Amino acid sequence: MAQIRDLEYIPVYRDPAHAANQVSLVQLANGELLLGFNEERGPIHADSGQSCLIKSADGGRTWAPDRRVVWPYSEHAGNWDCAFGQLRDGTVVMHTRVCSFIDSAGSGARADAQALGPPGARAERLKRQTGYAVLRSPDNGTTWSDPVEVNTFPITSASLGRYACGNSGAGHVIELPDGVVLMPLCGTISNNDTTGPVGETGRSFLLRSDDGGGHWEYWSTIAYDPAHIIHFHEPGVTRLRDGRLIALLRVSRRPNRYDNMWFAWSADDGASWSLPRRTNIWGYPADVTQLQDGRVLAVYGYRRPPWGVRGCLSEDGVTWDVANEFVIREGGAAAPEVPFYWHIGYPSVAQTPDGTIVTAYHEHSNDPSPVQFLCCTRFRLD
User: Fold this and answer.
1) CA 96, CA 82: separation in Å to the nearest integer?
2) Cα–Cα distance measured from residue 382 to residue 378, given in angstroms and rounded to the nearest whole number
């Protein structure tokens, strides 16, 4: 069983006026840690904000006092679910979902989105995902290109449901030895609301770019249920040193059941995948990385008592067993009886050159009006 030691919990970024969530952590080649995240327009988690980043120059012990906005929201559009990765030439690539909306306040629109927040919260904007975009930075995140629209065809990026073409921040791009870049996402072919009782369920899939992230096309499906009962979404994908791609998948089942994580692997650079199989590990979504010693680490949110973030080690990246699970953080759900306040986790993981493992995630404070904020845990594994 994995033994965790030298555990250190560190608050990273908190703004009472803005919820911060869904992180993406990258160990840059220059030694810095880059932590990307979504900053909401206000204190409510509504997935219509802006992509930001914050950095650490000392392996996550301390963080820059101010965040940098990568792509600011406007009056009519926003972006969220950003994920970051660095290519071998040093380019940092960020991909993110894009939405447009109308403000429901005073517009006569229904305010039933109140159910998404605490009593008295302002109704969420009537939002629709309108696409997907990539931005690139040549200087470790200091400056960024203009957004480039991503072609996800035949997967739609305009679904009404939560399984619209997208992913968690853990969906880092993956560069293959020949320079091909892969982007793990989830979505549907039909343009329907996948949260309903009928219709297509979400699939996990890969996009491919042959020019460093400038142009994209569909490459393969990682997992899909043609019976439309199982949703495979928010894949955590990494490439092992032996060349295999592995994916841990967040899964839910109709009519309304969260399942354990499922697993799939590819031996041909993602062109084809094994049949997905169910693990005995409960939690979602996962980020996966191969450690310096060759073992493979998955980190994931744990949204049931005692709440928090957990990890699991695999010796080969293919065999996963809950017996190798360990606790990274407990708590973080401010009011578990209110679903809005147990939206915690979405961890992302990186290993620093000295071997320290850093896992970043979001949780809620215990204030009378809980604040969703960013934090990280530094630790080592025996």
Assistant:
1) 4
2) 14
